[in-house]
Design brief:
alpha/beta, Nitrilase/N-carbamoyl-D-aminoacid amidohydrolase, 6-stranded mixed β-sheet, about 30% helix, deaminated glutathione amidase activity
Length: about 270
């Protein structure tokens, strides 16, 4: 068994301030005995414009700060940030990395599913105009919690990605996010519990919360869900903080043995 932590906070366009908050959460999680901390999507910054985002992404102080904090606290950390692309200088990758307790990066995932909606006489939200879609599923990475499969925010709506990661050996799925308030209220907990139940995995969902700027706010409610769909821990509605939960791989094994859904799947019928 190992203690896990998920964090939430309100990132702004001030990279140094966001770095300080994340390093503080890392220290607090380690002091509570957590072996691994999961931080939200876009923990380095949330910008007010595409131009500002492109400018801020060149500031490397965030990753360096988090790596040093992980090393100092002797804790594994998963965190989301904006990654530059040398081939496309007008867009960024939405990236999640996992670093070990020495601060070394051991896994790297770029968000596959982008939210593009352009409705006639309705809303137009085109994530692909500022973000480059990832092009590969990353195999689960071995951590003190077990094998962790990486996804980001909108990926949670595509169950086939979670099922694929379970097939590759995932014990834990992680969804660092910045859900909108409207979709969060409607779907956040339901989606996370569904992914946990159908894959029989623990789910770690760190989250952005609060009003980042005049144009954007996030739902929060960072949580940990067990393989039975039980919410083990959840952050408070309105503030920065941590939630904790124990990952018990023996318990996970019993659930999979008593309800062996993966052996009952019929991919011959639904490829």
């Amino acid at each position: 068994m190992a203690l896990a932590a998920v964090g939430q906070f309100c990132a702004t366009s001030f990279v140094e301030a966001n770095t300080k908050i994340c390093c503080g959460l890392i220290k607090k999680a380690a002091e509570r005995g957590a072996k691994m901390l999961f931080l939200p999507e876009a923990s380095d910054f949330i910008a007010e414009s595409k131009e500002q985002a492109l400018s801020l992404a060149s500031n490397h102080v965030f990753i360096q700060g988090v790596q040093q904090a992980a090393k100092d606290a002797n804790i594994w950390v998963s965190v989301g940030f904006h990654e530059q692309c040398h081939e496309d200088t007008q867009r960024l990758f939405n990236t999640q990395i996992v670093m070990n307790d020495n601060g070394s990066v051991v896994a790297h995932y770029r968000k596959i599913h982008l939210f593009d909606v352009d409705i006639k006489n309705g809303p137009r939200l085109m994530e692909s105009e500022s973000t480059i879609a990832g092009d590969s599923l990353v195999p689960p990475v071995k951590t003190p919690l077990g094998q962790v499969g990486l996804q980001i925010c909108y990926d949670v709506r595509f169950s086939e990605l979670s099922i694929a990661q379970r097939r590759l050996g995932a014990d834990v799925l992680t969804f660092p996010s910045a859900f909108t308030v409207k979709t969060g209220m409607a779907h956040w907990e339901t989606l996370l519990r569904a992914r946990a139940i159908e894959t029989q995995c623990y789910v770690m969902a760190a989250a952005q919360i609060g009003q980042h700027n005049p144009k954007r706010a996030s739902y929060g409610h960072a949580m940990i869900v067990d393989p039975w769909g039980t919410v083990l821990g959840q952050c408070a509605d309105t503030q920065e903080g941590l939630a904790f939960g124990v990952v018990d791989l023996d318990y996970l094994g019993r659930i999979r043995q008593e309800m062996p859904v993966m052996t009952h799947r019929r991919p011959d019928q639904y490829q």
